[in-house]
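For this section, I looked closely at a protein sequence along with its fold in token form, which I now present.
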Amino acid sequence: MQSYSVRFRTGDIVFAEGDPPHGAFLIESGRIEISSSQFGERRVLSNLGPGMLLGEMAVIDDSPRTATARALTDCTLTPIDARQFAERLAAADPIVRALLMSQLSRYRSTLATLSGDTSPSRHVAPAASSDAFALDKIRLESELRAALDRGELEMRLQPIEEIAGGRVAGYEALVRWRHLQRGDVAPAEFIRLAEETSLIVPIGDYVLERVCEMLAELRRRGREPLPFIALNLSSRQLEDPLLVDRILARLRAHELPPDRLKLEITESLVLDHVRIAALLARCHEEGMHVALDDFGTGYSNLGALLTLNFDQIKLDGSFVRALDTSRGVALVGVVVATARALNCDLVAEGVETRAQREVLQRLGCGYAQGWLVGKPLALAEVLNGN
């Protein structure tokens, strides 16, 4: 059987300084010495052994070899094609890629200086557009952290209407960020950025506190019955075993009944049935309701509804937009019947026209949310009856 590995004898040159970067190697056995010419003298930079990569830096930034690799003992190496690195680097997180290229650029400059070449411009690769994007992403993350610390994230309440009675039964809490220089940053952009890091957890705590404050103010202003406010949970928040305890602590601090806070879990997160089932059981024990959000967005699994006891299903707006077709009406009718059979409330999201609302009412859908019902409002606008 032909081996995938290559062998070098003691003293063999694996590659020499100045060679083109055709590929890298994984050292299976033996030891490799890395050296470079510094001010006319050969200097040993490192000594590599089994399990270590060899020659990957030149492959990553597609630069000539800046050092020589020589076998100190008989060695067995597994070649790694340059395309393998290129594919993985292209698929990597842009921030990780930018950090790697930044470190590599500094290494090249330092190595060039030690070798007597003091022209940094020859050794620092120009930033690619993807690097510029990554650096802007790093900058935006830092600015988001600062905005959170300064309390600059704003809360909006989008009304949810009880269709039969035509009254606002509750609201969904939405967080907004108006950047001092960039203007309004799309929620999808900064929430996705926060979810990529641990930043989503303090943002979740911030939103929870603001929601409790808004509920307390609605009660203080005599809003009866007190509407519920729904807030979305992220996957990182769901990983916290003390999440419900922390939520209950904030509700008690504001003397609020647990049933006025509704938790929303997006459909893509219910694949972890055990964790979600435990959360639902605990919430129901404490009197809190939980909604399955974005139902029908591509992760639909009726098994989730069979095993997870949600109090509410929120139908994705794509179904509402299809209500002008017989197929769309039929599918929404099935969802309405399913929700009724499971004793769940059904909220149709993205309701924008009276015709859509009329079809939903005829089908027996309980609640509607969307621009027809009302746009997201600041608390002051809600209190003023806008």
In short: The longest strand covers residues 167-179. The CA atoms of residues 75 and 314 lie 61 Å apart.
